[in-house]
Amino acid sequence: MNRRTIQRILNKKHEKFIESITDETVKELVKKNSIITGGAIASMLLGETVKDYDYYFTDMDTVKAVAQYYIEKFIVLHPDSIKPELCWDDDTGRVRIKVQSVGIVSEEDIEKIVTEADEANAEHMEEIDNDKGEYRPIFISANAITLSDKVQLVIRFYGNAEEIHKNYDFVHCCNYWTSSNNELVLNPTALESLLCKHLWYQGSLYPLCSVIRTRKFINAGWYINAGQYLKMCFQLSELNLSDINVLEDQLTGVDAAYFHQVIDYCKKRQEEDKEFKVTAPYLVSIIDKIFG
Q1: I need a labelling partner for 145 at 20 to 30 A (CA). Which of 42, 58, 81, 255 fits?
Q2: Residues 6 or more apart in contact with residue 280 via CB below 8 angstroms
Q3: What ranges in 93-204 are assigned the alpha helix state H?
Q4: How far apart are CA 222 and CA 213, in angstroms?
Q5: What's the CATH code, domain 1-105+130-196?
Q6: What is the pLDDT of residues 238-290, one digit of tens each?
Q7: Rounded Cα gap, residues 170 and 40, in angstroms
Q8: How many Å is the Cα radius of gyration of the chain?
Q9: Which pLDDT band holds residue 168 (cuts at 50, 70, 90)?
Q10: Strand 144-147 with 151-158, pairing
Q11: Which pLDDT band holds residue 203 (cuts at 50, 70, 90)?
Q12: CB 6 within 8 Å of CB 43
């Protein structure tokens, strides 16, 4: 697709989205303060099917308003599900959604829980593909709200595109569209990466997630050289993955149905034994049980 076509599609998508918002204050904030960036624009430039449209917001007020609006809608639509709560993280200065852990009782329960998680994830993906034009919340994590109609609202970060892209790992995802002026900005380096299908790691706060994410790109015919892996591994060496909170933070956004079980199991052990630390042998044993 060319620039004009992509710009027209994104503007139309945004107009339909804001029409679905019934709260006038939230509608106005989303109308003016939205950024669409990430894989959607990359997919359109390559002529591929868009999986979802990642929305970010330029200021904290919009993030809070949007998150609270869709949390309330989620509770109404899913009365028997978890009851997510909007929280402010003093350490990071960010909004997050508190989602109750599913919990794990014992090692014998792992297989049962993973099966249930897989079934729930399959239903979730079916919901995403079932486009009813309602833009209803169907899945909530600590950092994002997934709506029907292929929209994901990311609340983990906010700011202008430059600030948001500081948290991006691969440069080809750094094109963006802004709602305030219906402008599509194409990054020359991102275009070069897309043209060559060459993964270029620009550094990230979440290198573990980046390492895992390379699998899907390689399966789709992308190339990555050893130097990019060295960048990720060096950043990984600076992290304390034995800290469950650090490990959980690093795994956000990848293979959630499985990795949430890994984290929950580690947390359960820590609750039982305050001296417990995540070690390589322990993690290997849990991963082998869950991933098979």
Answers
A1: 42
A2: none
A3: 110-129, 161-165, 188-196
A4: 12
A5: 3.30.460
A6: 999 988 888 888 887 665 556 777 888 888 888 888 888 888 898 888 888 87
A7: 14
A8: 20
A9: confident
A10: antiparallel
A11: confident
A12: no
What is the amino acid identity at position 84? P
Q: Looking at residues 100-127, what average pLDDT do you find?
A: 44
Q: How far apart are CA 208 and CA 236, in angstroms?
A: 7
Q: Is 192 helix (H, G, I), strand (E, B) or coil?
A: helix
Q: Which amino acid is at 189?
A: T
Q: Which helix (H) or strand (E) holds 142?
A: none
Q: 280-291 and 256-272 are packed helices; what angle lies between their axes, rounded to 10 degrees?
A: 130
- Measured in residues, the chain has a length of 292
Stretch(es) of the chain classified as CATH 3.30.460: 1-105+130-196
- Say how far apart CA 35 and CA 56 lie, in whole Å: 5
Q: Per the structure block, which two tokens stand in for 51?
A: 């999986």
Give me the amino acid identity at 289. K
22 residue type, one letter? T
Dist CA 268 CA 287 (whole Å) = 15
Q: Copy the structure tokens of residue 268.
A: 């359960």
